[in-house]
Amino acid sequence: MRKWITLLSVPLLSLAIFLGLYFFDNAESSNKGPVQPVRFSHKIHAGAENDQIPCQYCHSFVDVSPNPGIPSVQKCMGCHTHIAGRDVEYDFGGTTINLQQEIAKVREYWAKKEPIPWNKVNTMPGYVHFNHKRHIKRGFECATCHGDVANMDQVYQVTRLNMGFCITCHTENAKDHEELARLKDCLSCHY
Ligand code: HEC
Ligand code: HEC
Ligand code: HEC
Ligand code: HEC
Ligand code: HEC
């Protein structure tokens, strides 16, 4: 019996280590966000020490539609036709990039008339409906759900956007019983 336990414990232990590494690795990568075709830094564009471009200049539909929108290459070129960028290295969250070379990629997409194939950062299953407009009109800041994006090079998801996250805030912020009932109604989010 003892021998069997010892024999079994080896694969079990390696399985445990494997799973541990797997989940650790997963947590790590979701923290940093996906690798994007252009290393676009929110810190450089929206950060307090840099350009401070308002979020809504680029995510223009956030207070008028369910979906905030990702800016087109044309919007980027509004500046990058004139701004070629300095020929300097920059530490983009641990990866060294050259500002001018990174901007050159944007100009290439423009020349080819192709959109930049950005990878999504926040993903929500198709059976959930989230509406930005309602939340922005109610006065919530972007940072409430997205964290301090203005200080991130690569944007990453700061909170798991699971059902508990939504319901907790709905429960805390409902004005009255009637609103609470609506905000907890399954069909408000699933339809
Ligand atoms: C100069 C244009 C620009 C400005 C200003 C800007 N963004 Fe973005 N934003 C982008 C682009 C391009 C992407 C897609 C690439 C990426 O995810 O890094 C993006 C992605 C995002 C995402 C992730 C989208 C997803 O896939 O889930 C969030 C969240 C976001 N921005 C929030 C903000 C907030 C908050 C601000 C203001 C503090 C802001 N952005 C300012 C251009 C901009
Ligand atoms: C309002 C003007 C403005 C807009 C709009 C703008 N940028 Fe920039 N961008 C700048 C400035 C200023 C710099 C800094 C250049 C420097 O320091 O040499 C910069 C730097 C960059 C860089 C190098 C630094 C980094 O973030 O990695 C990239 C890449 C870049 N922009 C891509 C984009 C993309 C993609 C868009 C559209 C989604 C965009 N920019 C929209 C002004 C703008
Ligand atoms: C109450 C929480 C909340 C607030 C406040 C909020 N967002 Fe979001 N945001 C989300 C969720 C949830 C998603 C994922 C939605 C989906 O995939 O359908 C998302 C997705 C996004 C995306 C990606 C959209 C796409 O097409 O891929 C952008 C860009 C974004 N938010 C920008 C912003 C900006 C800018 C603000 C502030 C003006 C803001 N958000 C405020 C919760 C929020
Ligand atoms: C920061 C707090 C907060 C978070 C987080 C939040 N909500 Fe909300 N949500 C509200 C409030 C408050 C309202 C009521 C807005 C109004 O109508 O004035 C609301 C309204 C809504 C509505 C409209 C309901 C209706 O029919 O009246 C939907 C749908 C919704 N939220 C979905 C979500 C989903 C899905 C998530 C999670 C991904 C989420 N919300 C996260 C605070 C929040
Ligand atoms: C405020 C928005 C909201 C309300 C109200 C809501 N849900 Fe969800 N629900 C979500 C979100 C967001 C997810 C996605 C979870 C994820 O991706 O982790 C989800 C996921 C689910 C799932 C998939 C399994 C899971 O747990 O991830 C089921 C089943 C579900 N909801 C049932 C319900 C039922 C039944 C009700 C009513 C009692 C309800 N939901 C009310 C936002 C909501």
Please give a structural write-up.
- There is one protein chain.
- Helix 4 (73-80) packs across helix 5 (99-112).
- Strands 1-2 form a two-stranded antiparallel sheet.
- It has a domain at 35-159.
- With 191 residues, it is mainly alpha-helical.
- Strand 1 and strand 2 form a beta hairpin.
- The protein has helices at residues 2-32, 42-46, 55-58, 73-80, 99-112, 132-137, 142-146, 163-173, 177-184, 186-189, and strands at residues 89-92, 95-98.
- One heme C binds next to helix 2, helix 4 and helix 5.
Précis, in short:
The protein is mainly alpha-helical and 191 residues long. It contains 10 helices and 2 strands.
Describe the global form.
elongated
Say which molecules are bound, naming each kind only once: heme C
Question: What are the secondary-structure elements, in order, as H or E?
Answer: HHHHEEHHHHHH
Number of distinct beta strands: 2
Radius of gyration using CA atoms only? 22 Å
Describe the largest sheet: 2 strands, antiparallel
Class from helix and strand fractions: mainly alpha
Terminal-residue CA separation: 55 Å
Model regions low in confidence, pLDDT < 50 over at least 5 residues:
1-30
Please count the helical segments: 10
Strand order of the largest sheet: 1-2
